[in-house]
Structure formats: C-alpha cells, structure tokens
Fold this protein.
Amino acid sequence: MISEFSLFTKSLQDYFTKPMLKLAFLPFVFTVIIFYALFFIIADVSLDALKDSTIHMEQTHTVTNNGVTDTTTINETYEGGNGIIEFLLKNSITSWLIGFFVYTVGTIAVMMLSVFISLVVIGFLTPNILNILQKRHYTQIQLNDSASLFMSILTPIKYTFIMLILFIVLIPLYFIPIVNIVAFNLPFYYMFHKLLNFDITSNIKMTQDEHFRLKYQHSNQVRLRTLLLYFISMIPFMALIASVFYIIYLGRGQMEALKELRKEI
C-alpha cells in the first residue's frame, strides 16, 4: 500500500502536468468572474438602498481664550449613498467598524464562498481529471460513463440541508471563545468532505461490496485527507488554484485503495 506522503507527492507531480494545469486554470477564472460580478451587484444594491437616506449633523464648539468665549456651530448634511459613506469614514468609530467588517468578515466570507464555488466548478471537471489519472496510472480500474443525474442533484441538496441543520444546532457554541472556531467550521467541513467524496466515488466504477469495504476500511484516512485539504482551502484564495489538486489527491487515494482491495480478493 502506498504511503500517505508518497500519495501526496505523486499527486503534486500529477497536478503540475500540462493537462492538469489547464484544468486548474478554469476554476480560477470562473470564480474570479463570479466574485467580480458579485462585488458590483452588492455595491450597487447597497448604494441604491442608501440613496434616499439623509444624515444631518449639528456640532457646537465653544472655546474660551483670554476670557473671551467663542462659539462655533457647524451644520453638515450627508445625502445619498456616497454622502453617508463619507460621513461614516470621517467618524473614527464607524470608520474602524467599516474596516473591521470589510477586512475581517469580508475575508472570511470570501474564503468560504471561494471554497464552495470551486467545489461546484470541479464537480463538472472531476470526470476529466479522473479520466487522465486512470489512463496514466490505473488502466485496470474502470470509470463510470455517466453518473445518475437524479443523485447528482439530490445528494448536494441533502448535504446542504444537513449543513444548515448543523449551523442551527451549534449556535450555542458560537459564543464560546476558541470552541466557536471549531463549531463554525464544522458544518463547512462536513459539506466540503461529503461533496468531494461524492464526486470521486460516483465517477469510479465499483461493486456495492467494494464500496462498503472501502468505506469501512479507509473512512478515517479519507477524513484526514479532506481535513488537510480543508485547512489548505482556508488559506486566502488557495481554493481557486488548488481545487483540481483535491480531486487528484483524493482520486488517487481511492483508486489505490480499490486496486489493493482487488488484489486481496
């Protein structure tokens, strides 16, 4: 049986081949286009929501100099989206809150969104990636010509529903420091793990007995692999360029395990 380190390095070698790099470029371009479009859509909607809003500020400054009191009154009115944004950025507290929201919450949202957009894209690329691996290394293993359309639609919906339930169930843990980090990521990891494994197993032809035996014997190994890949995907924008590697790594692991299982039988 191939070692985990050898599997990882061999998967890297496959990733840096010309056919794989071509496929890796597609999720990157597709996701960047979606982010670019979403940015302008959200910005446009936000400004439209503020266009009829008005903020009126009246400030009075009193200064006493050599017994002479000088009082100055400043009236400022901010209208529409651009005006309100200008007001918020002039105020130190609201400026800090905007910076926190954009750079912290925005970064987390972008990372999570990039992961799931990449998962959707590589779902379409998985058959091509596994076909390249099969022809290069595993000619004795057959691939499914076509996965069930019904299952391809139903399974992601089922996993999404379970992920949302996990989000709700884990709400009490979100208020506990450190624990909340694990609790927040657990539903995302569940979705990540399940979708990747469904993409792999649904495209490799095996008997029901082989499927259950692989699941029983190698489930912990697969979890460790997807956990490693999930940590990698948490590096900003890494999912955009590494998503094809996920399929190579997990696909090779699955086909290696199936090859060894058939030798035992």
